[in-house]
Design goal:
eight-stranded parallel beta barrel, 19 helices, alpha/beta, 23 strands
Length: about 500
């Protein structure tokens, strides 16, 4: 990272953009072709005004013509494309951004110069840039596939004849298609060998070039390259297991030259903590997402009791390009409550472009165009209010802590509440969410003794309500009553002139 660039804040808000689709819409709106260098200032201004700290430009690297040809012949993929985009044409299929031919910025998007221009525009607005890295596989027409077969998991002629869905001929060799061990192989990519020392060296070199162009990478399916997982998937085909794991080797080498470079892991199978220990700055919190979709407040509260050091390095979200759109997943009121819960937590917070407007169609990443959808004006106003309330620096650099909730005999609705707080030398915040379809009442408290002995004004950043309460109530149990799926995000303003206690490290 350039010495003049500040590191990403500890608890960042990240905005994911499907780059090709976004630029396509800008171009059609303006009636002219637009690459990354031509993005109007007002577009970057609008993202910055919402309070984001980083932009993830998903899908900037050169996609594979071989991958496009495979996709166009895949009946299942084509059906999914037409389901999302009924007026699909072959020209709309531009290939998967996770079937990479080369880690060069696609010419259609403006090439390296276009990316440099976009990064400068983001930097002027105090925004960091995140790009993709796909560790598990590359396209069959990537130069490595022909020039460096030792980087790959190989196969035999017998493998190809026996299982043509899992192996492919590249030149005069047979290579394994990339795969997740729980699903069939991906037909458009070939599998890299995580145990190959030569591959690791090439990856370090590639990531070094990427790190010259951005501030961090989101690593696709990062757990697939861990020694234990990789050995379980490919044992018998990949040689001896190395003593050192893949990610510590790679991350240490890249950060030796780019100390503040951020590694974000797409992670599943409860391997988030292990990946954090291997050097990742943040890992996806898919468990919280699943709890919000399928379970209730008790499950979410239990999840938020996890070790704080672990939670500080999770990525919270209610949608991304791999998940269905939140507006199509949650009922409208629940979607808002879930947004408060995810965006209000410690760690990194991820918002997907289109989420704020209530888009419902999950677009396959192979496509360059999406269907027109009517924006949800009320949802947009809610998100702008929420992000405005979360604009205080305490939500980026302060200390988060889970609150306590309780009730009384004959009332168990308090179990539908989730409570937490944020604090710094200058600020105190209290968040309370009713994660249920019924009215919830209870007592909530924050474990901060310096609340006592003061009077406090509570200003709700979501509804605008104002209350005055004693610090003993806030410490011992403040009565709250929330309608179904209702949230409060209170700014606690001390009416005493004495300074606040700083949070403990």
């Amino acid at each position: 990272m350039d010495a003049t660039r500040k590191p990403l804040v500890e608890h960042p808000f990240i905005y994911e953009i499907d780059t090709w689709v976004w630029l396509d819409e800008l171009a059609r709106r303006r009636g002219e072709d637009i690459g990354l260098a031509g993005v109007p200032d007002e577009e970057w201004d609008a993202i910055a005004a919402l309070g984001f700290d980083a932009v993830w430009l998903m899908g900037v690297w050169e996609r594979s013509p071989a991958g496009i040809a495979i996709a166009l012949q895949n009946q299942g993929l084509m059906e999914s494309f037409r389901s999302a985009l009924p007026d699909l044409t072959a020209a709309d299929v531009v290939g998967s951004p996770y079937c990479i031919r080369d880690y060069s910025v696609a010419a259609h998007l403006g090439g390296r110069e276009g990316l440099e221009s976009a990064r400068e525009a983001l930097d002027r607005r105090g925004l960091h840039l995140i790009l993709d890295f796909v560790p598990n596989h590359v396209a069959p027409d990537h130069t490595w596939a022909s020039a460096h077969p030792e980087y790959f998991v190989g196969g035999s002629e017998d493998d190809l004849e026996r299982d043509p869905a899992s192996f492919v001929r590249v030149g005069d060799r047979v290579l394994a298609n990339g795969r997740d061990p729980y699903f069939p192989a991906w037909p458009d990519v070939v599998q890299l060998n995580a145990f190959s020392a030569n591959l690791r060296g090439a990856v370090i070199e590639t990531l070094g070039r990427i790190a010259d162009q951005c501030d961090g990478v989101r690593c696709d399916m990062a757990m697939l390259m861990m020694n234990d997982v990789f050995e379980g998937t490919w044992s018998g085909r990949v040689g001896e297991r190395p003593a050192d794991d893949y990610w510590p080797t790679v991350i240490r080498a890249v950060q030796s030259r780019h100390a503040d470079f951020v590694f974000i892991a797409e992670a599943y199978w409860d391997l988030e903590y292990a990946l954090q220990q291997q050097g990742f700055s943040y890992c996806y919190d898919k468990r919280l997402y699943d709890r919000l979709v399928h379970e209730g407040a008790d499950s979410v509260d239990g999840h938020l009791h996890a070790d704080l050091g672990y939670q500080d390095r999770l990525v919270r979200f209610i949608e991304n390009h791999d998940e269905p759109r939140a507006a199509a997943t949650f009922p409208a009121a629940k979607a808002r409550a879930a947004a408060v819960v995810t965006l209000g937590q410690t760690g990194a917070r991820l918002v997907h472009e289109g989420q704020l407007d209530g888009r419902r169609v999950q677009l396959p990443v192979f496509l360059s165009r999406r269907p027109d959808e009517e924006p949800d004006v009320e949802l947009r106003a809610f998100y702008e209010q929420l992000l405005g309330a979360l604009g205080d620096a305490v939500f980026r650099t302060g200390a988060w802590q889970l609150g306590e909730r309780s009730g009384w005999d004959g009332n168990d609705t308090w179990q539908n509440l989730v409570v937490w707080g944020w604090r710094s030398d200058q600020a105190r915040k209290l968040a309370v969410v009713n994660l249920s379809a019924t009215r919830a009442e209870g007592h909530v408290s924050l474990p901060w003794d310096d609340l006592r002995g003061r009077d406090w004004r509570l200003v709700d950043g979501l509804g605008g309500a104002v209350y005055e309460r004693t610090g003993d109530d806030l410490r011992d149990g403040l009565y709250v009553a929330l309608d179904p799926w209702e949230s409060n995000l209170f700014d606690l303003i001390s009416l005493d002139l004495a300074p606040l206690d700083p949070p403990e490290d």
